[in-house]
Amino acid sequence: MTFEAHPLTKDRWGDLVELFDRPIVRTCFCMFYRKSGDTGSGARNRKAMKALVDGGVVPGIVGYEDGVPVAWVSLGPREDYARLQRSPIMKPVDERPVWSIVCFFVDSGARGRGLSERMLRAAVDYARSRGARLVEAYPVDKATRSHPDDMFFGAKSLYDRAGFREVARRKPTRPVVRKALRPKRSASGS
Fold first, then answer.
1. What residue spans define the domains of the chain?
2. Which CATH class is domain 3-180?
3. DSSP reduced 3-state for 9
4. Rounded CA gap, 2 and 142, in Å?
5. Model pTM score
6. DSSP of 58-86
7. Rounded to an integer, what distance in angstroms lies between the CA atom of residue 174 and that of residue 146?
8. Ramachandran area for residue 129 (φ above 0: left; ψ -120 to 50: alpha; else beta)
9. pLDDT, tens digit, 9 for 90 and up, residues 20-66
């Protein structure tokens, strides 16, 4: 199967809707951490996400196998996620500007094929292309296996393999991890 990952833009909106309309219920429509207070209904969250995309915000990356949307990762500058500021687990580690990864989703029929790793690489590459120098995430670190639907932050081992380093741990099973990014070199090597 061929794999591609693309930023969620207006022309790819229908792909995210198709992915989220599959059997798993995504009533938050990846708006939970972008809001403060009431999380809202699925319809309101979908409308809020669409407004972001229509306004030119890229709230994440859609992954495709053979042209079919099968995966999602939500990321953006930390300041885009209001709820992170108040979180006792995910509150800022320091004042450095970071991009945050707050959600992974892989369609149940596409799991077990390394899509989370591919999506994480795509997310890091996208953040780098937008000028990010640090990417931060809030994975789950448990000795026992969790249900895939409870792993929307991703497993710590996923981030370990990708070169992220733990920078804080405010709860035994929830580290904060970061990866420093170097600017992408231009084609001329400068």
1. 3-180
2. alpha beta
3. coil
4. 32
5. 0.89
6. --EEEEEETTEEEEEEEEEEGGG-HHHHH
7. 13
8. alpha
9. 887 565 667 888 888 876 666 778 888 999 999 999 999 999 999 99
